[in-house]
Amino acid sequence: MLGKVIGWFGRKTVLYIALILAIFGYALWTSGDVQRIWQRSQYLNQQQARDLERIIKEAEGHQRNLETRLKYEGESARKDGVEELDRKISGTQREIARLNSKKPDTLSTGLSMATLDMDALQREQMRQINLAFLERKLKGLKHAKDAAEKVSNRESAHRDAVDKRKSCNDAKAAVLAFDHSWTATIDRLPFRNRRAPLVNNMNKKCNDAESAKKEFDDARLAASKGLSHSQAWMKNDLPDTTKNLKSRLIEEREAAEDTISARADWAWTHYEGEIILKRALVALILIIASPFLIRIFAWFVLAPLAMRRTSIRLSVPDGRGTAIAPAAPSRSSVTVRLQEGEELLVRQDYLQTTSEMSVHDHRWLLDWKKPLTSIATGLTVLTRVRGQGNATSISATREGLAEVTLLELPEGGACVLQPRALAAVVQPIKRPMRITSHWRLGSLNAWLTFQLRYLVFHGPSRLILKGGRGVRVEPAAQGRVFGQDQLVGFSANLAYSVARTETFWPYFLGRQQLLKDRVMAGDGVLIVEEAPSTVHRGEVRRGLEGMIDAGMKAFGM
Is the dihedral of CA 398, 404, 408, 414 positive or negative? Predict the structure, then answer.
């Protein structure tokens, strides 16, 4: 309830604002000041602000793309060798030189910004972004090359350290072998010092090995730092090159707002804004009150006049009016057993089960004489079942709340029926069911209920009727009053008219329709749908669905 109240006030507020704008616009138009105000307005500021905003958005999008590309360039550079990196560095340097050669001079740049030459500003903006990208790329390639060279030095130092460690170990082994040989004893004699050269060679080789190991450690540390440094360049964002454009955008917007505010103040004083507000308020009150005034007129004048008009009574062919027996209560399914010379025409989505001995076929339209009616009500591509004694179950296979019942029309019997309520029909093969149209364009009741045509189904036939939450076929007895969407059919010999809804306030507040269907007492039956499909969530459907429902009802469908 609270949501509906808030929604109502919201809609009326929007309507009030629209009325103010409409009245103010009319005053401007009739005074002849529209063209002059338009010429004096700062339309150029607004247009330039929009163009600047577009250029900034495109530049920022291009910058994001280049930042993504920079990341991939960095990952690729980490895998390249020194020669490939040298080639990329040379190509990048050439691109930077080319972009620098296209840099406009200071005077041209100042003129472009002063006159807001959008094409020149956009070209310069893209050039600056591409230049920033290439400079960041060049810096990263140089870091990557340095890292690659350090990695190469590390590998060389590692091989040198391994070789020199092997030489040291060989020298140690030579000294150890000499110490365990018989010549070691002779070597103690004077002038026989053969061990000393071996020891000196061992010391030299091992010192060289230690130096090589230290050089390898230094090279490994330098390579690690170089790799870390080469990874950092691709994680940084490109610098913002749109600062000047953003500042100019703010200036253009402020200029446009100042102009619009000044013109608005002048227009409010010149055209007496308070009077416009009062006129809009009066118009709003009339618009809000109009539906209620119309409802009062319809309740006290139009409805009593309609109730005194002659009822609609359709003539029964041949002057006969064979009574139609009430049908059994509706249920989820009905079993139809065909007799000799009969056939069943059923909607596809209401054919549940059938005998395998039956002969099945299809029929494109229920009545070829009324193709539009058949198409509009979905009575197309019907399944035709034939076979004496065979049973077929009729049930809604897609509508969970739909129920069906069987109404038998005897020879000479006829009933008014909306075809949307027809699920299937059993008719003689050699004598198809006849459907006639009856127009009532001259009846006030027909125009008030907006049903101008009535379709009459003639027996002999059996009609399987469907309806939301069930369909009820009951005697007219003392007469009945129904909601206009509930009554889907009645015996053709009954008098049909309208009645005013029972209570005033529900109708006045828009919760009930003004008129209901009334069928006078007589010897016949009424066909009533429990929960009409034209009602959605307890309210009559509106918009396009409501227009379609109204059109279908006007043509008796």
Answer: negative
